[in-house]
Design a protein that fits this description.
The protein is α/β, with parallel strands linked by helices and 336 residues long. Helices cover 26% and strands 25% of the residues. It starts with a strand and ends in a 7-residue tail after the last strand. It binds inosinic acid and magnesium ion. The site of magnesium ion (MG) has 5 residues, from loops.
């Protein structure tokens, strides 16, 4: 059978919706024997609380915290030194990573030159991690792949095919995405996007047959944040957004940049739900929005205000129910 089924986590907004937390909660169920990261690189930042400790990972899939085999798939780009450093940092926190972290040989390497080039970016507002230049070289067929390198210290290089399709196995896989729908290279607001695919199809590009997909778990926040140079995302001086930014701790896990805040845009969320074909939707950070005096929702590019959080929640639930089977409002920082 090889692969029994795969569940996929996708982000329905602009990244930073709490996918790491959801992956952490799902991996804890021990339902999965493999966690697969399917796109992006060290531009991502997953912040989770593990046994009372704050853990931030950029490249290592969250599954490793629960002792699950974690693969960085062929759709990713890898900063080798940073990945090694990240694994060392996890070990220092007492997390066992031995024989658990694998990188597919096809994943491309982010080089020093890629980072230098990306550091000069002023147009997009990238994370300066060399992601765009690395993907560009991949598609120009001038890139270097992990399998081309000689030494890897803290992780193992594999052919993901051999692992996923080994005989007499019944893998249950959790596919962990990075960034989000509005940052997707095709579906996002080009050119203010990342250089990888952030939809469910991206998981399949890593060797998961579409027929094996089981649950598609869309993750979003009760409001939206964005980091980058897109103008007109929101009014930075709006005191409500400033308050949400403070209470929600909306600062980049990778760059420390403050994230711009805006109300949930229900139209882009619906589009992301439709294109990803989500079975479940998790809406995070309701606990933050609940503390606001006014709660808004963007509908048709206009803000509609609700008298309180409960009214807002009821309305959003009634609309989104048409596009998924299951909606969960998460109003706690560490669980669902
Ligand atoms: P890049 O992926 O570093 O090239 O950045 C392209 C755009 O995506 C910028 O607006 C970044 O701020 C944004 N971005 C990339 N990764 C993340 C992420 O993990 N969370 C939120 N925004 C991201
Ligand atoms: Mg993040």
């Amino acid at each position: 059978m090889a692969i029994a089924y795969a569940d996929v986590i996708v982000d329905l907004q602009s990244g930073d919706t709490g996918k790491g937390k959801i992956a952490h909660v799902l991996a804890a169920t021990k339902e999965y024997d493999i966690v697969l990261r399917y796109n992006g690189g060290s531009n991502a930042g997953h912040t989770v609380y593990h046994n009372g400790q704050k853990v931030v990972t950029h490249q290592v899939p969250i599954g490793v915290l629960h002792g699950i085999k974690s693969i960085i798939g062929p759709g990713c780009v890898v900063n080798v030194q940073q990945l090694n450093d990240e694994i060392i940092a996890l070990k220092k926190l007492g997390i066992n990573t031995k024989d658990l972290i694998f990188v597919d040989k096809r994943a491309h390497i982010v080089t020093g030159n890629h980072i230098t080039e990306d550091s000069a970016d002023e147009k997009i507002g990238t994370t300066k991690q060399g992601i765009g230049p690395a993907y560009r070289d991949k598609y120009a067929r001038t890139g270097r792949r992990i399998g081309d390198r000689q030494s890897h210290i803290h992780f193992e290089v594999i052919d993901i095919y051999d692992l996923l399709f080994s005989p007499n196995t019944h893998h249950t896989i959790l596919c962990e995405g990075a960034q989000g729908f509005n940052l997707d290279i095709d579906w996002g607001e080009y050119p203010y996007v990342t250089s990888s695919h952030c939809t469910v199809g991206s998981a399949c590009l890593n060797g998961i047959p579409p027929r094996k997909l089981n649950r598609i778990i869309g993750v979003m926040k009760a409001y939206e944040t964005y980091v980058g140079n897109k103008i007109h995302f929101s009014d930075k001086n709006n005191p409500i957004f400033q308050k949400i930014q403070e209470l929600g701790g909306e600062y980049g896990a990778t760059t420390g940049r403050p994230r711009m805040v805006n109300w949930m845009n229900i139209d882009t969320v619906i589009k992301a739900m439709q294109i990803n074909g989500v079975t479940d939707v998790i809406i995070n950070k309701g606990d933050i929005l609940r503390q606001m005096d006014a709660v808004g929702l963007i509908i048709n590019n206009e803000v509609q205000y609700f008298s309180d959080y409960e009214q807002f929640k009821q309305h959003v639930t009634s609309v989104l129910t048409n596009y998924t089977y299951n909606i969960i409002w998460s109003e706690t920082p560490n669980g669902i």
